[in-house]
Design a protein that fits this description.
The structure is a single chain. The chain has a single domain (4-255), classed as VTC, catalytic tunnel domain (mRNA Triphosphatase Cet1, Chain A), CATH 3.20.100.30. Helix content is 24%, strand content 37%. The chain has helices at 22-32, 61-67, 114-123, 132-148, 216-224, 234-240, and strands spanning 10-21, 37-38, 47-56, 72-81, 92-101, 104-113, 151-164, 173-183, 196-197, 203-210, 229-231, 254-255. An eight-stranded antiparallel β-barrel has the order 1-6-5-4-3-7-8-10, surrounded by five helices. It is globular, with a radius of gyration of 18 Å. The N and C termini lie far apart (38 Å).
């Protein structure tokens, strides 16, 4: 697996999501091996785990902006990859703002020791020894946290298999997420003892991510498998199943068409 320091920290792209079955995912993977390669950040087959600690306002403004389909919205999270050995105070992790405008997604993120990310996001403490580019991201995180009065609300963990494009499909990325679980207490990134499944064991979230247009073979693959794009959020699903809003029933899954 490549190191965190080699990871791109700023990027724009659009994302298309599909809720599929394990059988569909297996059929699609067979097609992908002809065009894409497993992500080098995972194991030899492109597998790795992701754990995210999400932040929101006391009135869950980020949640409702997603549910209401607000065209411009942001969310803040701390994210770790393959933390099987646990996250210590000095473990490098990502803290990132994910911004959405219509179907275009932007991410701005930095890598900090875990204790610095918690101090930044929870206590608004400014990390030391940042370069100019990282300072700009930290300033945005601080402003966002103050504006929304952000605090940690949910942890989401899942297994991902990722495939990436080569020279002819630069920027193309297709991922399969399974074993998706979440918890709202305790909000410790190392403790998932109370995590519960967000989807059935047969459900897979497939995402197609690209910088520009999709290759023809991708659109053919989607059509031949009769896939329907959906709007779905793991964070929103984690809040839905936590009974934060027990008297309000929400439908977190929307077909785009």
């Amino acid at each position: 697996m490549s190191t965190l320091s080699q990871t791109i920290r700023h990027f724009n792209r659009f994302e298309l999501k599909y809720l599929i079955t394990l059988k569909q995912a297996e059929a699609i993977r067979k097609t992908l091996f002809d065009y894409l390669k497993p992500d080098e950040y995972g194991n030899r087959d492109g597998h790795y785990s992701i754990t995210s600690l999400y932040y929101d306002s006391p009135d869950y403004r980020c949640y409702w902006e997603k549910m209401d389909g607000v065209r411009y919205r942001r969310k803040l999270r701390i994210r770790t990859y393959d933390s099987t050995e646990g996250v210590s105070e000095n473990t490098p992790v990502f803290v990132e703002i994910k911004q959405r405008y219509d179907r275009v997604t932007q991410k701005r993120r930095i890598i900090l020791p875990y204790h610095d990310t918690v101090a930044l996001c929870n206590q608004r403490q400014y990390p030391a020894e940042l370069n100019m580019e990282d300072k700009q991201v930290v300033q945005e995180i601080q402003a966002f946290a103050w504006q929304y009065n952000l605090r940690p609300v949910s942890i989401v963990n899942y297994q991902r298999q990722a495939f990436v494009g080569g020279d002819f499909d630069i920027g193309l990325r297709i991922t399969f997420d399974t074993r998706m679980v979440s918890q709202i207490h305790p909000l410790e990134i190392n403790d998932l003892t109370h995590a519960t499944p967000m989807f059935t064991s047969d459900e897979v979230i497939m995402e197609i991510k690209a910088n520009e247009r999709l290759p023809y073979w991708v659109t053919e693959m989607v059509a031949s498998n009769n896939l329907r794009m959906v709007r779905i959020s793991k964070y929103c699903r984690s809040i839905d199943q936590s009974n934060v809003f027990p008297s309000f029933s929400v439908n977190y899954l929307h077909s785009v068409f």
